[in-house]
Amino acid sequence: MTPPPALDYASDMKRSRAPLVTPPDRPSRLEAIGRGWLALHLFVTPLAFSQATVESFEFVKLLVLISSVIGFIVLGTLSATRLSITRLKLELRQPLTAAGLICVGAMGIATLASISPTTSFYGFHENFAGFVTMLALYVLFLSARWLVRTPEQMAAQFGAIAYAAILVTLYGFFQILGFDPFNWNDPSRIGNWVRPFSTFGNANYLGAYFVLAIPLVVWLALRCSRINRNSLIVLATAMTVLTVLTLSRAAWLGLMASAATVLAFWWKGERRVTGRQLLYLTVGAIVVGLTGFLVPGIHDRVRGFLDSAGRFAIWENSWRIFLERPWTGCGPDTFQQVYGRHGGIAYWKIYWGVTPSRAHNEFLHVLVTQGLVGFIACLGLVAAIGISFRRAWIFSSNDRTLVLAIFAAFIGYFVTELFGFTVIACGSLAAVGLAMISRLAEPPVPVAVYPANQVATVSWRAVQAAILAGCAFLLVHLVIDPWRAETLTREADLRAHSRPDKALELNEKAVHLCPWNPFYQSCMAMRAGEMARLEMDPVAKRRLSELARQGFEAAVKLEPQYGFHHAGLGRVLLDLAELGEDHPELLDKVFDTALRLDPADANTYADAIQAAFFNADAPRAKRILEDGLRLYPNYGPLKMQRVRYLLMTDRFDETRAAFREAFDADWTNVAKEKTELNLLHNAYLRRIQQLEHAKSVRNGGY
Fold first, then answer.
1. Residue 141 lies in domain
2. Do 371 and 485 reside in the same domain of the chain?
3. Which of 55, 215, 352, 588 is the most exposed place for a label (fewest CB within 10 A)?
4. Residue 221 is assigned to a structural domain of this protein
C-alpha cells in the first residue's frame, strides 16, 4: 500500500490517533497458508450444511467456524517465536481490536451472571450464539486482521466469497425451479410462493448474507478484466434477484441502504458514470424490475410490507425481560427460556407452539441478553467501526472504492439487523470485513519501525506445546464430539419407528459424548418416555421411565429456567406415579414450576390438569383448567380435560355439549390427543348405556 507523496506521517498519525507502527508485509510460508485457510473458510462457511445432523445448517457452520479458528491458533502459535508485550499493546490500541475485546469481556460477564451459564457458554441448540461463538468470531477477526494487509490480498479473499456466492445462488434458483435434490420440512411460504433459502436454511439469513456480499462482489468486478468483470456483474445481478425472491423485507431495505450509500458518495464526489457502468445499471434495474413484476409472491409481500409478523409483540416483551435484569441481562442465548413468562402467549397464538429465540433486533437482543453492560460495549463497537471507516477513508485515498464497498455492505447489513439477528455465516463475513477496515485504517510506516522477531526460548517452546495440546482438546470437545452426537441423534430420529430400542441406544451414546448439552439429554428422555408409554412389560416400563427421569433431571440442572424440561419431567413423574411411585407433592411442584417459567405453553396446562386428576385433586384441576381456557379457549387438549373434569365431578348433563365443543376445537399438531378424545367418548357412551340399563332395571323394565 503506497501512500500519496504529500502524506505527512507524523501529522496524520497525530490527527487520527492511529497506532505508531504497522506490521510489515513480509512474505511468510505460514502466513500464505493462513491466507489460504481464511479464503477456504470464507468459501466453505456459506456452503456448509448436512442432512446427517438434527440441525442441518447453523450447527454445521458453527463447526466450520470453530475448526477454522483452531487452525488459525495453530498457525499463529507456530509462526510466533516469542510473546511480545509491546506488540500486544500496539494491537490493543486499534479501535476495533479494543472494542471487540470489550464486547467479548461484556459477554463473558453476562455468561457468568446468566440464568443458565451452560447455555450462555455453549449456545442454545439451533441458535449457537453463546460465548464460544462470540469468542471464535473475535479470534477470526484478529486472524484476518493479521493475515490480510493489502488490497490485493483482500481481493483474493473476495474471490473466495464470489466463488461461494456462485454455488449459493445456483442452489437458490434450483429451489425456485423445483429442482432441489434434498427434501426439507416446512419451507417458509408467502402465499403460494416458496421462499428460497439455498444453503442457509432460512430465506432471511440468505438475504442478509447477500446484503453483505453483493457490494464486495461488485468492487471485485471493477478490478477485473472485461471477461471476469462481466461474469461478476452477472453474478451480482443474480444475487440481487435472488435476494428479491427471498421476500425478506429486511434484506430489501438493506440492499436499498447499500445502494443509497454508494450513490451518496458518488454524488458528493461528483464522479461521472461511464457508458459501460450506465449500461450495467440499466440492465440490472430492468432485470430486478421484471422479477418484481412477474413473481406474484412479491406483490403479496409488498402489500403486507408493514405487517409486523409478531415482531411488535416480541419487541414489547423483550423490553419487559430487560427491565427484570437490566445490568447483565438474562444471559447470552437464553432469550427463548425467559420469553414465555413475559407475554409469550400473543406469539403462541400467531405461530402455534413456537417460542421466539431472538428479539429480531440485534441491539435490543444484546440489551435483553447482556444488559446495559453488553449494550454499552456494543455501542462502543459501533463507534469504533465509525472511527475505523473514517481513518480508512483518509489513508486509502488511492483506492477508496474498496473502503466504500465495505462501508456500503455494513450500512446495508446494519439495516437488516434492525429486524433480524446475526447468524454464523454473516458473522464470519462481517468479522473479516471489519478486520480489513481495521487494517486499511492504519497509515503505512517504514519497516524499520517494526521490532524484529526474537529468537524463541525454551520456555516459549513449552508454551507452544501447551497451546497446541489445548487446540487438540478443543477440536475434540467442540467439533468432533458434537458432530458425532448430532449425527447419532439424527440417526436415532430416523430409526425411531423401525428400531426404537436401537434409537434409544444411539441417544444414550450422544449423551455420553456431550453430557454438557441439555438438548441431547432431553432427546434421550423424550425417546425413553415415549417407549415407556408403549411398553407393556411393567419392569421394562419402569426402567425406561427412570431413564427418562434421569435425562430430564440432568436437563433441568443444565437449564434450570427452561420450562420445557420441567414440563417433560412432570410427564415422566406422572408415568411413574401410574406405576406406583406416588409423589403427589413433587408432581404438583414440578408442574407449578413449569407453568411459572412458561405460562404460554398450552400443552403444559393439559398435562398439569392430568396430574391433578391422578392425585384426585379436583379443585387444583379446576383452577388450572380455568387458567388454561382463559388463555386458549379453543384448544383441543384443554377442551378434552374439561370433559374429564365434568366426568370426574359426575356432571353428566353438561358432558354431551362439552364433547361437541371438544371435537370442534383446535387440534393443530395434536392428533394423538384427539385419538384419546375418541377413546374417552367411547368410554362415555358405554358408561351412559350402563347407567340407562341400571335405571331401567330399577324401574322394573327387565
1. 9-449
2. no
3. 352
4. yes
